Structures are given as C-alpha cells and as structure tokens.
Predict the structure of ATP-dependent RNA helicase RhlE.
Amino acid sequence: MSFDSLGLSEPLVRAVHELGYTTPTPIQTQAIPAVLNGGDLLAGAQTGTGKTAGFTLPILQRLNTMPAVATASGKRAVRALILTPTRELAAQVEESVRAYGKYLKLKSTVMFGGVGINPQIGALRSGVDIVVATPGRLLDHMQQKTIDLSHLEILVLDEADRMLDMGFIHDIKRVLAKLPPKRQNLLFSATFSDEIKTLADNLLDSPALIEVARRNTTAETVAQKIHPVDRDKKRELLTHLIKQHNWFQVLVFTRTKHGANRLAEQLTKDGISALAIHGNKSQSARTRALAEFKDGTLQVLVATDIAARGIDIDQLPHVVNYDLPNVPEDYVHRIGRTGRAGATGEAISLVCVDELQLLKDIEKLIKRPVPQEVIAGFEPDPTAKPEPILRRGQGGGGGGGNRQPRQSQGAPKRDGASSAKPAQRSGQRPANGQQQPKPQGAKPAGNGGQPRRDGQRHDGQPRAAAHEGSAAQHAPRKPHGAKPQGSNPGALLGGAKPRNDAPRGGQPTRSGQRGR
DNA sequence: AAAAAAT
C-alpha cells in the first residue's frame, strides 16, 4: 500500500515522501479514501496512529481540487475548519497542514487564546483556506465577525472526546449553529461515550465508520518500568536517575499544576534544566518550554496532562510518571509520547504506596504487569500506610457527568523572564546523551517573549509530519530493558500477576465505506 | 479529583 494508490495527488505524495513516509498507517489507509469521497466520517482513533495525516492529506487534496472560492473582498475563503482541544495540539496540526501542503498553493493559519488576536485577524484578512483553532478563540472571532465561515465546506472535530471532557460542548454547538449546513464533517474520538454518540448523531450524515484498535497498550517499543519509592523520596530519586543515566530529554508528568511548578523548581536547584508546562502558564511560557524541550535546550519538561495527548516530540527517549495519573487511560496516553514512529522509548513510573490502586487499575487496563525495580538507596518503607487521597471516579463509560463551566482562573502567571531563544541550533544533538544542560538564565534575551505561533521550527527542519507520525510502519522492535535488572524486582508493591501478553494493537477492526 | 479552554 502506498500513498499514491490511496488517490492522493503527486504534490501531496511528494511532500509525504520527502518527510520520510512511504507506507500509510491503517487509519490513513481507511480515512484518506473516505475523506476524498466527500462524505462524513466517524473515526475512532487516538494520537499516534497517524490520525492527523489521515485527515489533513485528503482535506488538502479536496480543497486543491475543488474550485477556489473567493469572499466578497476577493480573498480566498475559509473552506476547512479544524477544532482541537488544546492550543499546542492546534499548533501541531497546523504545522502538519503546512508541511503536507508544501507544494500546494493553499494557505492555512492557526488561532487560539492566550496570544494577541490582531495577528490572527490580519491572517484572516489576507485570506486563508484552512483554519485550525481551539473553540474559545474561534467563537471570539465569530462574535467579532473577524472570520467568515459562510463558505465552509469541511469541518473536523479532532479529539472530540477530549473536547467534551473539557466542557467544550456548548462552545461547539454554538459554532456548529453558525456554519453553513451543507458541508463535510469529520469526527475523531478515542472513545465513544453516550455524549459522543449523541454528538455524532446530530452532526454526521450517514458517516463512514473507521476504527483502529485502541492503543491500550502500549507500543511494544516502549519499555515500561516501575520504581517503588517512598512518597517523600520521589524527587531525590528522579534527580538520581536523571544524573546517573545522563538522560537528556525527559518528559515528566505530575498530577497537578502546582506539583509541576514545584518539581521544575526543585530540579533546577539540583542543577538540571527544567521548565513546567501546564494550563496556568502564560502561552508564551508554554510555547517556549515546548520549543526548548523539542530542540534539546531543555533537559526536563515537567508537564500536567496537558501534554499527555497529542504532543509529539521526535525520538523522545524517556517519559517519567512522577505521579501516576488518576485515570488509567491517561497512562497509556502519557507513555505514548515515547517510542513513537518505531523508535524505542522508556517509560518509568515512580510509585508510592498511595498509588497502588491506581497501578492495579493501569495494569488491568493494559493487561500486563509492569516490572518493578527497587533502586538501591531508595527502598520504600514496607510499613508505610497509603494515604487515602486518591480515588478514581469514572465508571464504565456512560456515567460521569463531568460538566464544568468555564471559569476564569485569573490572569495566567507570568513566569518571569521574557526570554525566547533566538533562532539557532543545527538540529543535531549528541546521540548519546552527552549534551550538558544549560543553566537557567544563561540564554540571551530573545524576541521579547513573543510566542512562536508561526509553526516554524528553530532549526528549520521539516518535522510537522512526524505528528501522528509514523506514516510509515516500522517493524516492531523488542523493548530494551524489559526485564527488571538490579535489585529485588517486584518487591513491596503488589502488582498484577504476570500473564501472557496483551494482544497487539494497531490493526483496524472495522471499516465501512459508503457512498453518499 | 485534575486538567484544559475566551477576555
């Protein structure tokens, strides 16, 4: 199977090939012809399955093929709208659109909150074909009448379940109400709650159905490991691990925003360059942290679950769960940040007694125990009692009325400096972790803290296509270090009994085409 | 229970 046999035109295939992809993933194989068909689509797919290319490629082709439309002012009209739950994801999707559309004349832009609205208005005025947006800012534009969607032909709701979880349903309905009724709708969701089904029923007209087996697990290329540890020794252990192995690009997840801030500060004190990323950070701080982490300037990125989905970093070697996530599914999303596109990765979880129940839930979900390894010097106190803080909500699927109206959280915190890095860096990084982290503050002041919204990379390397990445399929590799090495594996923390391996994910389970 | 998203 190849991209041109899916019906994509030469300029798209050329862009895809130049980005290093030759073989479509299962979801691409199914979604691309379905979208080219012009009908609606309901797709069950998570990030990391090649989903983004699955809709951006055929959308580009359709817009390129269909006769261009002009607005009253004579500029190109917005014909495709892609909504995503987070700003970072919106930026990434638009990068993909740009990368894949490199040889086409189509124009795209991204818009979300937390940054100035005027540049966005300017971009819209100059005329764009494709808009990628988060719901809030899009509504803002609609109310201010700075966006004209009267020529819209294609609508995509990406990570629709996440958007509903985040309380976007009302915003989405308000957007939908103002769109031209005759259009192609694509809905992507990792899960299918009753809410999603209702949304799909209302939105989609006899959609094609595509489902790719859930990645409930954990690519084979990710080696997972638990380090049992006392709750108050976690930070020390993390520092120890990073320094001992000289890890150079570590994504660390915490449960709370406050926890992320604290940990980043402490790591910095320990001589490790670290920044936190979460929803209370200013957009410029978020953008900067992500950019520095991606280009290797930053050794550690401490994140809340804002980064659990979607965020894609090439060849990210290490993910650490400093806290286990409250929702088992998020474990899968988190560790899915590593081992992407066939590369090997390592997912380490620091687990204290409080988190045993969460661990059990996770092992049940992924249908396998995670090997445990106690690190010498960090043996957990066997008499420690769990503190009954953590409870997991969310029953089987239908239930949780998790509605939360948006509420203002006050001004985002400005974390100090207005430094953004000047463009630099060759794009190479040492292959073996020799890179020394720069101390904080050593960077020259940059462009006044303007966030990068332009989707360009510092190093100018094409990479957007790596999102949802692995267009190409790679031979599965054995995870390295899958066996616990070192001292008493399995000590102290009762995990699930070893079972035979879980079934591999990644195969399509169901597909339907239909004409319209 | 936490997180995210418009000002």
